[in-house]
Amino acid sequence: MFSRQLLAPLLESIDSSPAVALLGPRQVGKTTLALELAKTRPSLYLDLESERDRAKLSQPELYLADHLDKLVILDEVHRAPGLFLVLRGLIDQARRDGRRSGQYLLLGSAALDLLKQSGESLAGRITFLEMGPLSLLEAGAGRADDVWVRGGFPDSLQAASGARSLKWRQDFIRTYLERDVPQFGPRIDAQSLRLLWTMLAHQQGGLLNAAHLARNLGVDVKTATAYIHLLTDLLLLRRLRPWHHNLGKRLVKTPKIYLRDSGLLHALLDVGSKETLLSHPVVGASWEGFCIEQILASAGSAVQAFFYRSSGGAEIDLLLQWPAGELWAIEIKRSLTPKLERGFHEACADLQPQRKLLVYPGQEAYPMAHNVRAMSLHALCAELAELQASH
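RESULT FIELD:
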């Protein structure tokens, strides 16, 4: 059992909100975390992929009304979209009886329908949390390379060998394409989606070009865009937004794309080991995407993420905007002797960030020119996690 950073925010949300939705890809550990939490209070767990548990909810209002004194955990809740209206009535009934929090924990594998349906039905009654794969801090000291190469899905990370880990990830991808994706939208050809997924892997860290992807897939731009939205909503793809504030400069306005789990990226490219990865053209983009995901997982949902690029060549890999408006500029380099290009300094002159950081694979933290501080990914993640906990 890994210690998950999300446990404390999850407990806090359950204690302050009638319903909490915990969203994340399959096999990421949502059920394990929910069952661990259930040990702390009277709870009822229902798996809506189980016919027996679905049968209990044939008359959901009657069944759930008998369990208003418990935290009811509904796993794979997207399989029963009609429940949300029932939950709203039960939550309102419990409010009238003086119980205002800790009633329902909803687990879902995708954001799209669950967010729409629950947001409409449970407005003002539900809190959303997102759970990703295991982070660098959660996996434990000394496992940075394993988390990078294998990704953060617990079964992949803990596999007995690199070959077994790769096989698990390849099976995971196949299951998503053949079984899970059709649940969350219109019927999509699995072969086309697999091809798109692989093309996105080859373009890791690049600017999104839906027209180019559509041509290669042999579909129209609208269809290609729908596929990309689907992978984003399944929390498998990140579209990193460009910095959008008007600075009187011509800025890139297209998002950058990253497959969120580095292990799935490597599986799509048939990269099974660190040795193979280090000689693969994707190594730099893979490291950049891995660092971005680790940083954002540690920073928490209150922090907004962007990249910055101007037509004149000024560029920053990652901008963190804090709720009070403070900006951190982060450059990512996979070199033990990293050097900053002029474009980073020009971008910092444009934006005037409060902190300027360079993340690199070494362990030593040291100052660089122009008030930039070089530090390890693990050290930055630990600092961000501490800041999140203090707020």
